[in-house]
Write a structure and sequence with these properties.
The protein has 419 residues and is an alpha/beta fold. The chain is 46% helix and 13% strand. The chain contains 15 helices and 9 strands. It has helices at 44-54, 67-74, 80-91, 95-105, 108-133, 143-162, 167-173, 187-195, 238-253, 263-266, 303-307, 325-339, 357-375, 381-399, 404-413, and strands spanning 2-7, 15-24, 35-39, 175-180, 213-219, 222-228, 256-262, 288-292, 314-316. It has a 6-stranded mixed beta sheet, sandwiched between helices. Helix 5 (108-133) packs antiparallel against helix 14. It is flat. The two termini are 51 Å apart. Bound molecules: guanosine-5'-triphosphate (GTP), potassium ion and magnesium ion (MG). Residues 187-188, 200, 208-209, 228 line the site of magnesium ion. Belongs to the TRAFAC class TrmE-Era-EngA-EngB-Septin-like GTPase superfamily. TrmE GTPase family. This is Mitochondrial splicing system protein. Residues 174-341 form the TrmE-type G domain.
């Protein structure tokens, strides 16, 4: 790094700026090639003059979009998961997205997938050894059994990555939250409260909301796409009934749902009233409840007991007076964080390894090939080896490293044969 005068290449007497030149010698640069960075003052005229001067050099041209990253990938500095992570980092709008993208860009996913791939190749190497030498004098007994054992473990690892409730993908693309409930419960009032603006129309007329209205929000550092829906009821109105149908589909396709009920209509002074018939079929163990309009009933404190709702997933509020809303907001944010957690300090939940659907598809393919390998016995090692080769290639596609032979050579070199 050196302080320097930046001059025009054809008129060295012409000083364009007083700046810094930083030279990164290959391969210790971002792209793995020789890189020279010229740091100049940020004035628009200076930058324009320097760029124009550089364009006089015959071997210089402006970079294509993403070209530096592409060169870093070609040079092996980054794998595809890191490239994706960098892009996600730029797009990250919430804390959870930033944390996850940073892990990917830093190579955490790369490391997992590369280990998985090399473990599959290790397994393949054992099988290949059997093909080349046969079980006998040259090779230890039970190699095929050992390969089978390893393959079973590898498949378990892949399954553990796949069984992540799609947390990584959901956090990347946004958690889809559906607000639903009977007409006039206060669903649109809730959307407006969360959005802190009059996004949806609120009126005393039941059936006000007909279409789906979505708003993207940050709740407790998580990206949430909140959908307000039409109140669920039987109706003769053609437009409203389409809205009700859309509402049902929205709830069923959502990652998490929040059922809003109006307290005065759900409980009377003595007996609990059953949930409205249109609402009941959409309730599942993950449904959260917001019991609204506490201002209209005399003793709001025990309603959750009356309804038999678990405390951690139900809140009582008045969206009109604001009573209970801050407890709801913090409680609901914690419930979301618990449900879609990226980390568990106690380590009982693994951070998700899959952040893109693409990763899932390749892992599913790899798992199928390993399962196919496990169908063969030692007689058919040649066929079994092919399955393992395909499994390794599928995992390799996640990082963009698909050549199996190079790794196989390396593994083979220090394998038990050839002694
Ligand atoms: N008293 C009282 N009224 C409320 C409360 N929350 C909402 N409301 C009123 O209830 C009525 C219905 O509210 P909305 O938010 O439109 O209800 P909704 O569930 O979206 O209704 P639909 O879209 O028709 O299904 C409006 O007049 C609101 O002002 C509350 O906590 N207390
Ligand atoms: K309404
Ligand atoms: Mg509404």
């Amino acid at each position: 790094m050196q302080r320097c005068r930046v001059v025009h290449p054809e008129h060295p007497g012409e000083v364009l700026d007083d700046g810094l030149a930083v030279f990164f010698r290959a391969p210790k640069s971002f792209t793995t090639e020789d890189v020279l960075e010229v740091h100049v003052h940020s004035g628009r005229a200076i930058v324009a003059a320097v760029l124009s001067a550089i364009s006089h050099l015959p071997f210089c041209r402006p970079a294509e979009p993403g070209e530096f990253t592409r060169r870093a990938f070609n040079g092996g500095r980054l794998d595809l998961t890191q490239v994706e992570g960098l892009r996600d980092l730029i797009d990250a709008e919430t804390e959870s997205q930033r944390v996850m993208a940073l892990r990917a860009a830093g190579g955490e996913m790369r490391e997992r997938f590369e280990r998985l791939r090399s473990d599959i190749i290790h397994c393949l190497a054992m099988v290949e050894a059997l093909i080349d030498f046969g079980e006998g004098d040259d090779i230890e007994e039970g190699v095929f059994e050992q390969a089978r054992e390893e393959a079973i473990q590898l498949n378990k690892t892949i399954q553990s990555y796949l069984n992540d409730n799609r947390r990584g993908e959901i956090i990347r693309s946004g958690i889809r939250l559906a607000i639903f409930g009977p007409p006039n419960a206060g669903k649109s009032s809730l959307l407006n409260f969360l959005a802190q603006r009059e996004a949806a129309i609120v009126t005393p007329v039941p059936g006000t909301t007909r279409d789906i209205l979505e708003v993207s929000l940050d709740i407790g550092g998580l990206p949430v796409i909140v959908a307000d829906t039409a109140g669920l009821r039987q109706t003769e109105d053609v437009v409203e009934s389409i809205g009700v149908e859309r509402a049902r589909n929205m709830v069923q396709g959502s990652d998490i749902s929040l059922c809003v009920l109006s307290l005065p209509e759900t409980v009377d002074s003595t007996t609990p009233i059953r949930l409205p018939s249109g609402v009941q079929p959409l309730i599942n163990p993950n449904t959260c409840f917001l019991l609204n309009k506490t201002d209209l009933i005399s003793s709001p404190s025990n309603v959750r007991d009356v309804l038999g709702l678990p405390y951690e997933r139900a809140w009582t509020v008045s969206l009109t007076t604001g009573e209970g809303t801050s407890e709801f907001l913090s409680g609901f944010a914690s419930a979301l964080q618990e449900h879609f957690k990226l980390y568990d300090r106690l380590g009982s939940t693994e951070a998700p390894v899959i952040t893109h659907v693409r990763h899932r598809a390749h892992l599913e393919t790899a798992s199928r090939f390993i399962e196919a390998f496990l169908q063969y016995d030692a007689i058919d090692v040649v066929l079994g080896a092919e399955e393992l080769r395909y499994a390794a290639q599928a995992v390799g596609k996640i990082s963009g490293l698909i050549d199996v032979e190079d790794v196989l050579d390396a593994v083979f070199r220090d394998f038990c044969i050839g002694k």
